[in-house]
């Protein structure tokens, strides 16, 4: 049961009862299919169609009136929530301070992200070389918020092999919490380790791995 | 080191040992048919070990705290990366004394490369050599180049 469902179930049912949605694989019944299409015409994204096909019970649930959620169905809600936990630019920088991988949301001025990442390197160096001066220094890999600009917030993470990860996030994203950023860095680090262990990848080369691209796309703001 | 990684049954090390021995045979055989010099084989093996060491250390340091200085790095390498005993597993199958001593360097080249790769990924440039006087004990010497 997806977290969105659990949240909804909690608001409707007494806590002891668990709402289980019938999960059956396979195509939707024709009636359900037309309901789904209607829902999409009303503004749901068409990604929901494949979601709804997998969990047809959700459709039944979404027919109920849920004023607290502005009439949005579960999949719309989760989608909205998911969009909030997204980065705008993700980059991996090598030990020698050149970029191994940099990917940003396609906007008209992508160079400004490159510039932001570049300037954040100074802050990273400062944090790494602060030996024992800061009070809460737990020798962590996660460096935290590096610096906020008026539009963006920049977070940093350094591995033991001195490879730096930089994530740039929209400032208007107030719902993004620290441990969500940490888990994003964790996923990046795991994926990067897999890239390093790939015998076809030479350390020092730019990252070409499709799997890494997939992980990064999962964390970036989706276009549209 | 391999025991530390897998949690210690003999069955885990055997495949690696067999593979390692076969790799050494393969490199020497293909060198015989070509015209590479004898010393080139050892460096091929060492470079292989280097690359493996880099990947290995990346995986192992994923969860450890950040290293403050070189001392931390050396402590990590000596304690977590390498087990301390007198029986080097890659050699113990060869002999228990002085027989085959002249073949020992081939078998150590990979491990030298392993340590060198691990150190270089952690930011320490080094040269690693190994000496064997009596098998299966062997001594690794790490020379760190100060910038």
From TrEMBL, chain A:
Any one biological process term the GO annotation gives: endoplasmic reticulum to Golgi vesicle-mediated transport
Keyword Nucleotide-binding in annotation: no
Pfam (any one): Sedlin_N
GO CC annotation terms, alphabetical: perinuclear region of cytoplasm
Family, as annotated: Belongs to the TRAPP small subunits family. Sedlin subfamily.
Keyword field: ER-Golgi transport, Transport
Subcellular location: Cytoplasm, Perinuclear region
Primary location class: cytoplasm
Name of this protein: Trafficking protein particle complex subunit 2-like protein
UniProtKB/TrEMBL annotation, chain B:
Domain of life: Eukaryota
Subcellular localization: Golgi apparatus, cis-Golgi network
GO biological process: endoplasmic reticulum to Golgi vesicle-mediated transport
Assigned GO CC terms: cis-Golgi network; trans-Golgi network; TRAPP complex
Major subcellular location class: Golgi
UniProt-listed Pfam families: TRAPP
InterPro entries listed in its UniProt record: NO_sig/Golgi_transp_ligand-bd, TRAPP_component, TRAPPC6/Trs33
Gene3D superfamilies: Trafficking protein particle complex subunit 3
SUPFAM superfamilies linked: Ligand-binding domain in the NO signalling and Golgi transport
Similarity field: Belongs to the TRAPP small subunits family. BET3 subfamily.
Matches recorded under PANTHER family: GEO08327P1, TRAFFICKING PROTEIN PARTICLE COMPLEX SUBUNIT 6B
Protein name: Trafficking protein particle complex subunit 6B
Organism from which the protein derives: Dissostichus mawsoni
